[in-house]
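pls design
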C-alpha cells in the first residue's frame, strides 16, 4: 500500500509565487498525495488563483492568524501518513515526495527526513546548492543549527508525540518544533536536492532581523530546558546551547553593537570556550571564532 503524503502550503499575500509552487506539488511523481492550501487572510488575488485549480487542491481561506497557527490548522486537516509543509514561494522538485517516502519507509525509526536544497533568487535562478549534514541532535541543540529546511517530511507519529508548531514563535517555530521532536527519535538526511528556498526582500527571514527575532532564539532553548523528560546528554548541553542562542541573537542585532553587546556578553558567560569539534565536517560556527578571539573581545564587552 502506498502511504498518503499530505502537502500543506500556508499563504499570505503570496500570489506572485503561489501558482508556481502549487504547480510544483501537483507535478509530483509520487502517485498518492493530498494538497491543502490555506489562505491566511490575503488581500491580493490569492483566492482567485486557488479557485482556478478546482478540485485539484483542497483550500480554505480564514482571517489572518499567522503562519504558525495556519500550519497547525493544516496539520489538523491532514490525512497523510507523512506531511510536508511548503512555503508559498518555494516550489519543490517533482521527485520530492517519491524519494522522501522511499527513505522514510526504509528508516522506520526516523520521525523526520530532510533533503538537500537550492537557494534561489527572486526570479528562481539558483544562487547556491546546499548539501546538508547528516543529522546530529548535538548540532541542532548546541550549535543552534536548524538542519531540516525546505522540503522536510515528517511522520504523522511526530504530531502524536509533540503538539505542532508553538504559536508563541513567529520566526523560529520550525526550529523549536524540531528541538522537541528530536528528543524522541532520530531524523534522517535524504542526500538528494529535492527542494528550493527563495531569497527575496519580502521573506520573513530576510526582512525581520530585530529584537523580537533575537529573543525568540533564546526563549525556545530556555523553554526546552523547562521539560522534565530530558536525557542526561541534553542536560549537559545546556550551557553551550544557551551560549549559542545568545550569540545568534547578538548576530541578528548587528551591526547595532549597542544592542548586540549584552547578548554577546551573556554568550561568553554561559560558555566561554568550545573545546570539542564535530566529526561531521561542519565548519565551526562564528561562535567558535568568537571564542577564539575571546581575550581581545573582553576589553570591549566587559
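designed seq:
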Amino acid at each position: 500500500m502506498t502511504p498518503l503524503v499530505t502537502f500543506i502550503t500556508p499563504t499570505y499575500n503570496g500570489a506572485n509565487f503561489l501558482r508556481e509552487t502549487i504547480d510544483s506539488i501537483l507535478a509530483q511523481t509520487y502517485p498518492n498525495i493530498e494538497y491543502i492550501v490555506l489562505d491566511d487572510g490575503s488581500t491580493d488575488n490569492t483566492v482567485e488563483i486557488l479557485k482556478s485549480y478546482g478540485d485539484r487542491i483542497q483550500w480554505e481561506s480564514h482571517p489572518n492568524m499567522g503562519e504558525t497557527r495556519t500550519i497547525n490548522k493544516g496539520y489538523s486537516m491532514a490525512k497523510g501518513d507523512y506531511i510536508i509543509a511548503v512555503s508559498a514561494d518555494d516550489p519543490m522538485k517533482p521527485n520530492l515526495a517519491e524519494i522522501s517516502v522511499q527513505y522514510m519507509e526504509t528508516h522506520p525509526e526516523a520521525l523526520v527526513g530532510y533533503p538537500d536544497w537550492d537557494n534561489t533568487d527572486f526570479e528562481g535562478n539558483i544562487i547556491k546548492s546546499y548539501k546538508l549534514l547528516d543529522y546530529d541532535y548535538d548540532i541542532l541543540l548546541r550549535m543552534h543549527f536548524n538542519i531540516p529546511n525546505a522540503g522536510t517530511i515528517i511522520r504523522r507519529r511526530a504530531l502524536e508525540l509533540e503538539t505542532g508548531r508553538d504559536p508563541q514563535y513567529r520566526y523560529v517555530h520550525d526550529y523549536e518544533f524540531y528541538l522537541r521532536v528530536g528528543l524522541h527519535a532520530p531524523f534522517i538526511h535524504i542526500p538528494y536536492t529535492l527542494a528550493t528556498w527563495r531569497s527575496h526582500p519580502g521573506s520573513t527571514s530576510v526582512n525581520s532581523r530585530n529584537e523580537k527575532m533575537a529573543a525568540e532564539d533564546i526563549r525556545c532553548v530556555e523553554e526546552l530546558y523547562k521539560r522534565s523528560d530530558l536525557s542526561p546528554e541534553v542536560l549537559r548541553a545546556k550551557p553551550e546551547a544557551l551560549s549559542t542562542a545568545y550569540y545568534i541573537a547578538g548576530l541578528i542585532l548587528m551591526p547595532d553593537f549597542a544592542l548586540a553587546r549584552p547578548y554577546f556578553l551573556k554568550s561568553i558567560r554561559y560558555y566561554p570556550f568550545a573545546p570539542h569539534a564535530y566529526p561531521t565536517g561542519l565548519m565551526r560556527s562564528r561562535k567558535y571564532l568568537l571564542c577564539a578571539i575571546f581575550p581581545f573581545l573582553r576589553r570591549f564587552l566587559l
